[in-house]
Design goal:
Helices cover 31% and strands 15% of the residues. It has a ten-stranded mixed sheet with strand order 2-3-4-6-5-7-8-9-10-12, sandwiched between helices. Helix 1 runs parallel beside helix 7 and helix 1 crosses helix 9. The radius of gyration is 19 Å and the shape is globular.
């Protein structure tokens, strides 16, 4: 059984300056957590369609996936393991020209899958990625099969583009980017229509790392009727600083050449528009959602962005506490393979703990042994320990 195991932060101004520079370098060049690479078979044009791999991942009728449904058409399928499949999907919600390569979706069936049962669903959102197939971040680098080991759940990892920021972009003159619509309005009902899911909010959890942590919280804020639990791992959860805003500005420049296409008119984003998409400002909408937050103290190396994201996470946790919104916040340092920085060696064990807590709260009983995790990822820095 694999054991998952994992500098203190400087002044807030210093860490936010690091966020303004380091985050862009890491996310645009290498991908958050150094993930996002493609496996050899899954980066093709979509001509390969492995029907058996689709069946192994829990789909009763593979051929039905090749027909448009809820705005989604599957054009390729590759086996990742005996119970995981990598799908290429097409949707009008996001243009093929959007940065981030093909629209990849990874589906993992639970161990000992029984098609007569209804399964809870774990949705995973990757961070900003290298140029192709961002859903493979969580599968390959994040080891999603091991993270969900022992839980009777269907796991769906959704691509988020290179810098899509899990939102419907306000300005789409250059390229169509409706990531929220793709995921929430299309992918969720598509999953429920093709897989045996327990299609209610208590049995649906949204989890993400880095940019995906932002997305997980924002999706739960926008649609608390769909998600009973939201989990952020090193997410950017406070957009009030110029340093935080610069990440969205640079994402816009990369995609369109304009600085304010994500939330604004291409040239300007108003304060009201920033606040409408700020997890901190919109946090009252989480009053009926259980929230889990994780962040590291940093690895002490120059350019490490984790302390800055830790600051935004801690600020967000304090805001939830002030509103009486149920949450748990865990802050960790160096432990095992985790150096306290912005890497999957920290996020994977945190995800094991978070999903275990969710399963216990919702009465989901493990079917086999869960991965062991260092106690530092179980300690609760603030919020409830239950």
């Amino acid at each position: 059984m694999r054991e998952y195991a994992g500098g203190s932060a400087g002044p807030r101004a210093a860490t936010l300056r690091g966020l303004a520079t380091g985050l862009l370098v890491v996310s645009l060049v290498t991908g958050c957590g150094m993930g996002g690479g493609s496996n050899g078979g899954g980066s093709g044009s979509g001509a390969t369609f492995d029907s058996q791999a689709v069946k192994n991942a829990g789909f009763a009728d593979p051929e039905a996936l090749r027909q448009e449904d809820h705005g989604i058409t599957v054009t390729g399928a590759w086996s990742l393991s005996e119970r995981a499949v990598d799908l290429t999907v097409e949707t009008d919600a996001v243009s093929p020209d959007a940065l981030g390569g093909r629209k990849s979706v990874v589906v993992i069936a639970p161990e000992n899958f029984d098609p007569s049962k209804k399964y809870p669903v774990v949705y995973m959102l990757p961070g900003s990625s290298s140029p192709d197939a961002s859903a493979l971040q969580w599968y390959e680098t994040g080891k999603a099969e091991q993270v969900t080991q022992g839980l009777p759940v269907i796991t769906v990892i959704m691509s988020g583009g290179q810098q899509g920021w899990y939102t419907d972009w306000a300005t789409q003159d250059a390229v169509t980017q409706n990531w929220e619509s793709f995921h929430v309005k299309e992918m969720l009902p598509w999953v429920d229509s093709h897989l045996p899911t327990a299609a209610d909010r208590d049995h649906r959890v949204i989890l993400g790392n880095s940019m995906g942590g932002y997305g997980a919280i924002r999706y739960a804020e926008e649609r608390p009727d769909l998600f009973g639990e939201a989990i952020s791992l090193s997410g950017l959860l406070d957009l009030s600083s110029d340093a935080a805003k610069n990440n969205l500005v640079e994402a816009s420049r990369q995609a369109t050449g304009e600085p304010d296409a994500v939330f604004g008119d291409g040239r300007t984003t108003t304060q009201e528009q920033w606040q409408a998409h700020d997890p901190l400002t919109q946090s009252p909408r989480l009053k009926d959602v259980h929230v889990q937050l994780f962040a590291g103290r940093g690895n002490g190396q120059e350019g490490d962005i984790e302390p800055a994201l830790r600051d935004t996470t801690a600020t967000f946790a304090r805001e939830l506490d002030s509103q009486g919104i149920p949450h748990q916040y865990t802050e960790y340092g160096r432990v095992g393979d985790c150096d306290g920085g912005h890497i999957f060696e920290c996020w994977s064990p945190a995800a094991v703990v978070a999903l275990g807590r969710w399963a216990q709260r919702t009465g989901i009983k493990p079917t086999s042994a869960r991965p062991s995790v260092a106690p530092e990822f179980k300690d609760v820095t603030s919020g409830s320990s239950s």
